[in-house]
Design a protein that fits this description.
The protein is built from 12 helices and 9 strands. It is an alpha/beta fold. The strands form 2 sheets. Strands 1, 2, 5, 6, 7, 8 and 9 form a 7-stranded parallel beta sheet that branches. α4 links the parallel β6 and β7. α1 packs across α2 and α3 crosses α4.
Length: 290
């Protein structure tokens, strides 16, 4: 049972520490706490500040681990964002284990934070295997510098996948309004890979900066109409189940250990739900046999 992901802006780290540990017990040691720096859409419209989000994440991870070690003692902390004054989380570990923490990280700062505090990495932005390897290298070096054992670290990848009976059919399904909208929410550097410029500028970081309530619906419609097919093609992994399995294996060769298949086909056509899950099962079986 995993959450991918929450943040420490809407939720105090003490609340996250208590909730995650409770779920870890209820799931008999099978809960994963996914956490990241947050997204403007779920923060700023509600009067909360997004400023210093990476620093807040770093301090929150420290506080969560501090509280997990507080079963029989009080702990205090005076930080930039959080303060503890003789606080305690009384619930102990489940069979000597605490929930693994998987950090959603994409930029150098948060990648290093993942290495220092995380038990896993949960990226959601599209990247090629060589980019995945480079980012994982940054995490590994940060973990080693902190004296942590990297062999227990779980590199994962939240892949946006479209299953089809052929690659040509996948291209036809990709050319849809809902996936053009999805392409608007990916970072500008994904656009630049195919020589395109994101309408929100070259510094647009994707879902982190996407706040639809601040945008004019008519403007979004115009942007959707202008999304190049090459960007949609780049933003979503697509093809037959065999091609998707081969794609995942190319990431496994550079360190991937846990793939999350976020299926976008049913968003285009709900009738694709049965075949999409059938193909996902085929991918899982192929990966296990490999």
């Amino acid at each position: 049972l995993g959450v991918g992901v929450t943040d420490a802006i809407r939720h105090h780290p003490a609340q996250l520490a208590q909730s995650a540990l409770t779920l870890h017990h209820l799931s008999r040691g099978r809960f994963v706490l996914g956490i990241g720096a947050g997204e403007r859409e779920s923060i700023e419209p509600y009067g909360l500040s997004y400023e210093g989000q990476a620093s807040r994440l770093e301090e929150a991870l420290y506080v969560i681990r501090l509280l997990w070690g507080s079963r029989d003692r009080y702990v205090s902390h005076e930080g930039r964002f959080f303060r503890l004054d003789r606080a305690i989380v009384g619930l102990g570990p489940y069979r000597r284990t605490f929930p693994p923490i998987w950090v959603a990280a994409h930029r150098p700062r948060t990648l290093r934070i993942a290495g220092r505090f995380g038990d896993g990495w949960y990226p959601t932005h599209q990247m090629e295997p060589d980019e995945y390897a480079d980012a994982l290298g940054t995490i590994r070096r940060a973990a080693e510098d902190a004296g942590r054992r990297f062999r227990r670290f779980t590199p994962s990848y939240d892949m946006r996948v479209l299953f089809a009976d052929s690659h040509e059919e996948a291209h036809r399904v990709l050319d849809s309004p809902v996936l053009r909208l999805g392409a608007l929410i990916v970072p500008s550097d994904v656009w630049s890979k195919v020589g395109a410029a994101h309408p929100m500028g070259e510094r647009f970081r994707g879902v982190q900066d996407w706040v639809p309530s601040r945008l004019d619906p008519g403007q979004i419609d115009k942007w959707m109409e202008g999304v190049p097919f090459e960007v949609v093609h780049q933003a979503f992994d697509h093809g037959t189940w065999r091609q998707i399995a081969t794609r995942i294996l190319s990431y496994r060769a550079v360190g991937l250990r846990h793939a999350v298949l976020a299926q976008v086909g049913p968003l285009v056509d709900p009738r694709r739900v049965p075949s999409s899950f059938r193909d996902a099962v085929r991918v899982i079986r192929a990966l296990r046999s490999a």
